[in-house]
Amino acid sequence: MQKQSIAILGAGNLGLAIYKGLETGGLLENNQAILTRRDTNAIKNVSHPATTITSDNRKAVEDADIIIFAVQPKQLKDVIDEVKPAIHQDKHTLISVITAVSTEEIEEMIGFDLPIIRAMPNTAIAVGQSMTCIACNKAGKSKLDAVQTIFNCVGKTMVIEENLMQAATVVCASGIAFWMRFIRATTQGGVQLGFDAEDAQKIAVQACLGAASLLNNSESHPEQEIDKVTTPQGCTIAGLNEMEHNGLSSALIKGLVTSYDRINKMKKS
Ligand SMILES: NC(=O)C1=CN([C@@H]2O[C@H](COP(=O)(O)OP(=O)(O)OC[C@H]3O[C@@H](n4cnc5c(N)ncnc54)[C@H](O)[C@@H]3O)[C@@H](O)[C@H]2O)C=CC1
Ligand SMILES: O=C(O)[C@@H]1CCC=N1
Question: How far does the signal peptide extend, from start to end residue (predicted)?
Fold first, then answer.
């Protein structure tokens, strides 16, 4: 890949996780990163020499080839108004990780047609384990491969239709929080059953990784793997059925749908 300068406008939780992923994924060996934030002192533990930290969004855009917008949805319009004069159709590829803002809306804010990619990673990008769902506008199609190459260095990617981006936000991005709570609850159960908290968490994390790996490395279905664990009249089926009587699957699905509906409200506000 030709040497590129990647600006992340809004180096907060996700922006910094993306940056960490670029660093650990080796992308800063040949490319430059520019991080912006209003209060640059809040950007900690960034020491890679190929990195510039600034509060000057306009200058960051002038110096960049790829611009990643990572501010909160309500902050986007102001940032675009600020950097618009420095955006060039033939030079820049825009990537937005912002929830609930379509490529069409971004195009309208900018006022002209240029490659716009919507990417929905999750914070596991910091450790190279994100799933990043990607969609684009018409002009963005020519840049899709290049953008996928970047996100493939920090996990896996899936190109989707933009109308699925809202669902991707919930399953992929919010998904990290949902799985964390599941691991936390398993840890709490482990403590009640006798492990200290540290050991309980280690066991819960490895069991979670193991379950994910069983599916990741095969064509298997979760229920097939469950069948292999649930000894007739054994302890697993007893516990699993108790969880289901208390609405485990139903609670998860309802939670996903509630998150999805919340995005509709964010769109209107
Ligand atoms: N946190 C997550 O796991 C995910 C977040 N997203 C989306 O990513 C975006 C960012 O989310 P977070 O990182 O969680 O929010 P955040 O609030 O941690 O980060 C946003 C950053 O932008 C900075 N900022 C605000 N105005 C600015 C300006 N004018 N110039 C430069 N920097 C400015 C803020 O100081 C803050 O550090 C949101 O739109 C969110 O919907 C998407 C997927 C996952
Ligand atoms: O909670 C949120 O709104 C953002 C989008 C997905 C993860 N964090």
Answer: none
Q: How many CA atoms lie within 13 Å of 59's alpha carbon, on the beta-carbon side?
A: 9
169 lines ligand 2 (CB under 6 A): yes
Ligand 2: does its nearest atom lie under 6 Å from the Cβ of 174?
A: yes
Q: Which residues fall in the annotated binding site for NADP(+)?
A: 9-14, 70-73
Residues 30 and 82 in one domain: yes
80-98 pLDDT, tens per residue? Answer: 999 999 999 889 999 999 9
- 35 C-alpha to center of ligand 1: Å? 12
Nearest CA to ligand 2 atom 2: 174
CATH number of the domain that residue 176 is part of: 1.10.3730.10
Q: How far apart are the first and last CA of the chain?
A: 40
Same domain flag for 89 and 216: no
- Residue 60 buriedness (CB in 10 A; 0-12 / 13-18 / 19+): buried
- Per residue in 47-61, pLDDT (tens digit) is 899 999 999 999 999
Residue 127 DSSP one-character state: G
* Residue 91, pLDDT score: 93
User: Closest residue (by CA) to atom 8 of ligand 2?
Assistant: 174
Q: How many domains are there within the chain?
A: 2
With a cut of 90, say whether residue 3 has pLDDT above it. Answer: no
Structural domain span for residue 236: 169-268
User: What is the DSSP pairing of strand 130-136 with strand 116-120?
Assistant: antiparallel
Sequence-distant (6+) residues with CB within 8 A of 110 are 80, 84, 87, 94
Of the candidates 76, 65, 59, the residue with the CA atom closest to the CA atom of residue 6: 65
